[in-house]
Amino acid sequence: MHLKKRVAILLVLALASSSLAGCSGGGGSAAAASAGTESSVSATAASAAQPQGGSSAAFNWKKYSGTTLKVSFVQHFCADPIIAKIPDFEAETGIKVEHTVTPEANYFDKVSTSLSSRSGDPDVFMSGAYQLWDYSSAGYVEDLSTYVKDAGATASDYDYGDFVPSAVNALKWDGTAGHKVGSGKQLGLPLMSEIYTLAYNTKAFKKLNLQIPKTLDQLADVSRKLKGWNGSGSYGLAVRGARDWGTIHPGYMSTYANYGAADFAVENGKLVSKVNSPEAVKMTAYWVNLVKTGSAPGWSSYTWYDCSADLGAGKAAMMLDSDAVGAQQNWQGASQEAGNLAWTTIPVVKEGDKPKSNFWTWALAMNSASKNKGAAWYFIQYFTTKDFAHYATITKNSIDPCRESVINSSDYANKMSKQPGYLDAFKATIDNSTILFTPQPSFFETTTDWAAALQDIVAGKYSDAQAGMNDLKQKMDKAVEDVDVG
């Protein structure tokens, strides 16, 4: 029964209808993913991007020469560098790669259907951590830890220890509902990550002589004051509002955690929703007021695409969302407001609190039904090395990198100096960043219900936030009543 329920959720519920909301990129380079491979890169960049073959006596990059792999990418700025380097991978390994690029609105539906067919196609696919909870619960994902530990399968200079701990831990889970991420199977390896910070337009704050908000009360105040800052239709703060899971996990969930609230707890051997706790209700009431007084008139349809576009177009004075998404609007020539954007940490309840952030990472994962697992591992390995991460981050714009060697490099510091406050906000937040949701196989059902409840509270369909969250708790408890917590 549990597997049947998981597969039903996986194939029908939120992945098919709500994938637009996934935490992910934007900006100028995302559309380029569909254009195929780049025909020219500098010899220096090409050399830097390539893992060094023959680094272990037992390891040989040509071992699977002649194999054909099928790889599925979401249309995203972190896929662009991989696609650009596929010809180099093919030349280095003799492995032929057939790849597809799908817009995020349809991507997870497509991948879910393909994995459930057990055909082995695709061999490798991009995924986020939440999706991997569902996929692994249904047995669709290969554990990569065995490959990492195999000296014959992994080059000696791969350096797994160089990964940012929060990034690889976000992709580990033991498969038991209610258990936090960070242990168990390595369900994927990270390409890039994002945390949630506050991006703001420096022109807007100078124009109205406002101080950058440090607390949530200050954020609400300046959001109101920034209404109309740049003419008709401009407003204070861009946040997501669409009726799907993606509305909950960025700014809302990060702020929820800063209030000390939790989504679930394990009580008497069962998962129990905590969304109607005093902390959860207080935070939601705050958020509803923030949306009503300071956000976009069309908030209820907003995904990360809309938030990012409004920030870049000078409609939104601030955006509380992915640091990486906002940065794509600030590269030279990327948007109307490029060069005017800056970053600070997510506002907290009271000044001096440590900012907590939810965490997202795009990763490469292997289909457990793949008939080419050795070659699939070579692909994942090649495109998660230190050298490739350096190329993807520095030559391209795939941020935040998941390799410590890149984050701590002078090249990265120089590149991000063009994004004022970005690295300071990142460094002040990353150690307090983790996946703040409780892993469980009904994640998409419960978070989509949560987004719907939030919309209904904003629309006045409940007398207050308490009533709305009481109703939501009942729905969430029903969704997880049969979940085995081990």
Secondary structure elements and pairings:
Layout: H1 2-12, H2 14-18, H3 43-49, E1 68-74, H4 80-93, E2 96-102, H5 104-117, E3 124-127, H6 129-137, H7 145-148, H8 165-170, E4 172-173, E5 185-186, E6 189-194, E7 196-201, H9 202-208, H10 216-225, E8 235-238, H11 248-258, E9 264-267, E10 270-273, H12 278-294, H13 304-313, E11 316-322, H14 323-327, E12 341-344, E13 360-366, H15 373-382, H16 386-395, H17 404-407, H18 410-416, H19 422-429, H20 443-458, H21 465-479
Parallel strand pairs: 1-2, 1-3, 8-11
Antiparallel strand pairs: 3-13, 4-5, 6-13, 7-11, 7-12, 9-10
Helix pairs in contact: 1-5, 1-6, 3-16, 10-12, 20-21
In short:
By secondary structure, this protein is of the alpha/beta class. It has two domains: 2-194 and 361-408, Periplasmic binding protein-like II (D-Maltodextrin-Binding Protein, domain 2, 3-Layer(aba) Sandwich); 196-357 and 437-479, Periplasmic binding protein-like II (D-Maltodextrin-Binding Protein, domain 2). The protein has helices at 2-12, 14-18, 43-49, 80-93, 104-117, 129-137, 145-148, 165-170, 202-208, 216-225, 248-258, 278-294, 304-313, 323-327, 373-382, 386-395, 404-407, 410-416, 422-429, 443-458, 465-479, and strands at 68-74, 96-102, 124-127, 172-173, 185-186, 189-194, 196-201, 235-238, 264-267, 270-273, 316-322, 341-344, 360-366.
